[in-house]
Amino acid sequence: MKHAAHALVIFVGGGLGSVARWALSSAIVHHLPVRVRNFPFGILACNLLGCFLIGVFFGGLRTFRPEEVWRSLLVTGFLGGFTTFSTFAEDTHRMLHHGPAFGASANVAASVLLGLAAVYLGHKTGGMLLDVFHISGR
Fold first, then answer.
1. Would residue 138 count as lying in a domain?
2. Is residue 25, in this structure, part of any structural domain at all?
3. Average pLDDT value for residue range 78-84
4. Residue 138: which pLDDT band, with cuts at 50, 70 and 90?
5. What is the Cα Rg of the chain in Å?
6. For the whole model, what pTM was predicted?
7. Could you write out the three-class secondary structure of the chain?
8. CA dihedral defined by 34, 39, 40, 44, rounded to 10 degrees?
9. How many domains does the chain have?
10. For residue 39, what pLDDT is reported?
């Protein structure tokens, strides 16, 4: 794939991922009780879902090799825009300076530990999907 087309695919995927992150995060925060809205549940959910989905994608790669355009669109673009380390870091910084340190520590622990668990479960799911649909690669 040529560089300009590659960049365009990533751009489109990133834009869609960013809008999806905003929509999901906003919806989650909107439905939370006001007393717990100081914790970044929306961003945590996006990051964990993104971890799971990247695990599904790479778990499915053990035998199925998608075209480079799909990897660029879905992983680099969409999941790159959907998940966000910078927002996680800012939320944690805010909690350190404006709330109990426990909230910041809980955000770091939940994001890292649950993120790793989500990637693991995604890998397992991706592999199972290959088995269920009898996909053996190209």
1. no
2. yes
3. 95
4. very low
5. 17
6. 0.89
7. CCHHHHHHHHHHHHHHHHHHHHHHHHHHHHHCCHHHCCCCHHHHHHHHHHHHHHHHHHHHHHCCCCCHHHHHHHHHHHHHHHCCHHHHHHHHHHHHHHCCHHHHHHHHHHHHHHHHHHHHHHHHHHHHHHHHCCCCCC
8. -120
9. 1
10. 94
State which residues form the domain around 84. 3-132
Given a cut of 70, is residue 62 above it in pLDDT?
Answer: no
In a domain, 76, yes or no: yes
Q: Which residue has 């649950």 as its token pair?
A: 114
- 137 is a domain residue: no
- CA neighbor of 72 nearest in space, from 3, 13, 16, 137: 13
> Could you read off the pLDDT of 5-29 as tens digits, one per residue?
999 999 999 999 999 999 999 999 9
